[in-house]
Specification:
Blueprint (H helix, E strand, L loop, with lengths): L2 H10 L7 E7 L15 E7 L5 E2 L4 E3 L7 E2 L5 E2 L4 E6 L20 E5 L5 E6 L8 E4 L5 E4 L10 H10 L7 E7 L16 E6 L2
Antiparallel strand pairs: 1-2, 1-10, 2-7, 3-6, 4-5, 4-8, 8-9, 10-11, 12-13
Length: about 200
């Protein structure tokens, strides 16, 4: 059970490392992204790390290595540096959504294969709360973050760009602290102990 053993196993089953990678996963999508039917689904993001467009027609996505549950449609071209969100919902069987779901408790696989069945990547999902996503960081490690960056790099700048793309706020002002049931901690100007929200300019 070592990294070398894992690589040997991956090579045995036909592992390849093309330009296409899984870059972000969300399993508790309550408000982040809507699919074309207006539904809130789990989603998996694919990213083309190269500068050239890559035809990913026939690639498959699944929650296990044995069954290829979702076939990426013919004519799907992922541009250089581009991103593609694949929505996942076990109750939808229309071909536009991957017919499987992912538990927000984690411990499940996300498996990407090429059109000839070779494994591109296997991601082990992590536990996530509502609104959190699992992201591949710049350090090459997976982490869970509240700063989803769907369609953009997994950075603060990418998160801000994503927010702007959906009409959200991408500035430096954030809510930094909330106090509820303030009984004796801090009084307002009139000497009353009220609930309060702290706003911080991180810029």
């Amino acid at each position: 059970n070592t990294e070398a053993g894992y690589e040997t196993w991956m090579n045995t089953v036909g592992h390849v490392t093309p330009e296409i990678v899984i870059s972000e996963v969300m399993t508790a999508n309550r408000s982040t992204l809507l699919n074309s039917d207006g539904q809130l689904c789990d989603w998996v993001e694919l990213h083309n790390t190269s500068d050239e467009s890559v035809d990913i027609s026939g690639f498959t996505l699944s929650d296990n290595t044995n069954n290829n549950k979702y076939l990426i449609p013919e004519g799907t071209l992922l541009t250089g540096g581009g991103y593609l969100e694949v929505y996942c919902n076990a109750s939808v069987k229309n071909g536009a959504v991957a017919p499987f779901g992912l538990s927000q408790l984690g411990g499940e696989y996300v498996v990407l294969k090429t059109d000839d069945g070779r494994i591109v990547e296997i991601v082990d999902s992590l536990p996530m709360e509502s609104g959190e996503s699992q992201q591949m960081g710049e350090n090459g490690r997976w982490n869970v973050s509240r700063m989803s960056s769907a369609g953009y790099p997994n950075t603060q700048e990418g998160h801000d760009a994503y927010l702007k793309s959906i009409g959200g706020y991408g500035g430096t002002v954030t809510i930094s602290e909330i106090m509820a049931s303030n009984q004796a901690f801090m009084a307002d100007a009139q000497g009353r102990f009220t609930d309060w929200v702290e706003i911080c300019n991180t810029g």
